[in-house]
Specification:
two-stranded antiparallel ribbon; about 210 residues; 2 domains; 4 strands
């Protein structure tokens, strides 16, 4: 499936003569063409590209040209994550216990390491086939099998039929905020934030807490 996408499908129309380059060189070149890190309102900044991806995948129908555009924007976002100097710190000072990220194979350590190290010297298309197979298809199947086993939910987007693999009900891209709402609820329960009309702002206790920890 990934072989077809990058060799003959929409992915193959994303590049011109870059197929002779390696993945690391192409991503670094794409990153160099992005606006400055702080210029996030620029329409070609990765933040704006993410919004465009979300909007385009929410359309009632997506053409092949749309898929080519979405793929190209996705590669620019991935290049920003992996190659921007500002993102090299990954999780910063946050320390995870040994093995903590193992159930989450797509993370800010594993993906840049794959792009900049284990896949960096492969030819572009070969590297992208390996990358998407591991981080997209294999990761999806692992999560789907875990949900099926633990929750009884069949969330797999692939079905084996007499005519081969059928892709079903692909959801659009969406914004995620893992554990954000739980964290906000805890802060509110502790009295560190309070509601001001539709905004959540630090309370007096929250401001005092910020003084202590800053």
């Amino acid at each position: 499936m990934c072989n077809w996408f990058w060799h003959d499908g929409p992915g193959s129309k994303t590049f011109n003569n870059e197929d002779v380059s390696n993945l690391s060189d192409v991503f670094n070149a794409r990153c160099d063409d992005l606006p400055a890190f702080g210029d996030w309102r620029n329409e070609t900044h990765e933040i704006q590209l993410i919004e465009k991806i979300v909007n385009q995948t929410h359309q009632s129908s997506v053409s092949e040209n749309d898929l080519v555009t979405i793929t190209s924007m996705s590669l620019d976002v991935l290049a920003a994550v992996c190659c921007r100097t500002e993102n090299k710190g990954t999780y910063g000072e946050v320390q995870f216990r040994a093995g903590y990220l193992d159930p989450y194979p797509v993370n800010l350590n594993s993906v840049p390491n794959a792009i900049n190290q284990s896949l960096s010297e492969l030819k572009l298309v070969d590297a992208l086939v390996k990358f998407t197979t591991h981080y997209c298809l294999d990761s999806h199947l692992r999560v789907a099998m875990r949900k099926l086993r633990q929750q009884g939910q069949n969330t797999s987007r692939f079905e084996m039929t007499e005519n081969g693999i059928v892709i079903k009900d692909i959801p659009p891209a969406t914004h995620t905020s893992p554990r954000f709402y739980q964290a906000m609820r805890i802060l509110r329960d502790l009295g560190l934030i309070t509601a001001d009309e539709e905004l959540m702002i630090p309370s007096e206790s929250g401001l005092a807490f910020l003084e202590i920890v800053s």
